[in-house]
Give the backbone structure.
Amino acid sequence: MLVSRADHCLVDLLWRWKRQRLGADISLVASNHPDLRELTESFGIPFHHVPIDKDNPDEGHGRLARLLRGHCDFVVLARYMQILPAAFLDEVAAPLINIHHSFLPAFAGGSPYDQAKRRGVKLIGATAHYVTAELDAGPIIEQDVVRVSHRDDVSSLRCMGADVERAVLARAVRWHSEDRLLQHGNSVVVF
């Protein structure tokens, strides 16, 4: 698993893994920040801090790719907030599953909850998808939404969004682990 600073998806997947409800084994967690080391190691999972220098990201991405290559069947981006270059995807040579904090394709990019509040949306959601070289354009595995109202502020939208992100990512990881997904072009069929 790859993470940055947000812990909600990581905690949920670790909890499911510990209770054998994930369908996958977690071999390691790597992050571009050291913040979640103690949490990860409390579950007995190795944690690797691999900083990504904004002026030279290729070096960090290369170290991260070498850490993952040959050590995993697939990689989960549990709120890993880095754009991964095509060379990284090629070197890892395993499927990557990402959770996107909005209902794609709407509100792609940064600050989707701010965008949603400004637009007065009635539903917010999350999208789990396979990672491709094109940002947030990979085949969609799972999506879900939650109803919101004009009374909700950006903070409550983020909180509700975190809940739906956890559920969507967990389903995508479990389905992938159970070989229930068939990718056809830019579409995924769930069996």
Notes: The longest strand covers residues 123-130. The chain has two domains: 1-72, 95-191. The mean pLDDT is 92.
